[in-house]
Amino acid sequence: MQPGWVWLCGAGPGDPGLLTLHALNALRQADVVVYDALVSEAILAWAPQAEHRYAGKRGGKPSAKQRDISLLLVDLARQGKRVLRLKGGDPFVFGRGGEEGQTLVQHGVPIRIVPGISAGIGGLAYAGIPVTHRDVNQSVTFVTGHDQTGETPLSLDWEAISRASGVIVIYMGMKHIAPIAEALRDAGRPASEPVAVVCTATTPDQQVLETTLGTVVEDIAESGLEPPAIICVGRSVLMRQALDWQAMARGLAPRDTDPLGRGRPAESA
């Protein structure tokens, strides 16, 4: 890292082991780390030499304004500091990294972009759910569960998404799961469609709720689960019955080695 630069880095979905080497090197070199709510203390501990500045944004709670965060990065860089902007997941996947990067460039601040593992892929993988599986889907759609106002995104064409994508991954969707589930059912997805809700993914506190599109609202309410969460809609959720590797690590056998009912042996390498 060079003085006066800002590195926009993804911290991954939670498990410190999912950091990239570039992000780890940045943590060890930074003068100041401006971090989000989903960045753990275990990750920040790799930057003991740096000043830690919290800039988290959580729905329904007092949060820093995005413009203030972006201008803070500009000010720190202009002070000649090595600035690490550390964001949960990937900074360019519903992380507003593009907005921050654009502000920095407009103010003449040099940047480096370091991608991270997005929770919509890595978080589901930790739950044993592949976002693509050739017997299930040839496409996957990532959507946000709220827009800039914090409400359900009205600009999304749920009918088109439902028709085109076998698997739908919803970020930040717990608050508005009722209208989202209704929109998907109205768009033709059956009430029996498998759904998984993965909370605090990849961390020791990870919790997974397996449900259906018809009962997801009631099941979330009864479970007491809280954000942050990733919601997956589609038959790939069934693969968790065979691929729940964390359960296998605890000595539990797969519930079903062929959850899709295809009965096809694996092809030889």
From TrEMBL:
It holds the Pfam family TP_methylase. GO terms for molecular function: uroporphyrin-III C-methyltransferase activity. Pathway: Cofactor biosynthesis; adenosylcobalamin biosynthesis; precorrin-2 from uroporphyrinogen III: step 1/1; Porphyrin-containing compound metabolism; siroheme biosynthesis; precorrin-2 from uroporphyrinogen III: step 1/1. It comes from the Bacteria. Keywords: Cobalamin biosynthesis, Methyltransferase, Porphyrin biosynthesis, S-adenosyl-L-methionine, Transferase. PROSITE patterns: SUMT_2. The keyword Kinase does not apply. The keyword Methyltransferase applies. Residues 6-216 form the Tetrapyrrole methylase domain. GO terms for biological process: cobalamin biosynthetic process; methylation; siroheme biosynthetic process. Its EC number is 2.1.1.107. Belongs to the precorrin methyltransferase family. This is uroporphyrinogen-III C-methyltransferase. It comes from Histidinibacterium aquaticum. The lineage of its organism: Bacteria, Pseudomonadati, Pseudomonadota, Alphaproteobacteria, Rhodobacterales. The gene is cobA.
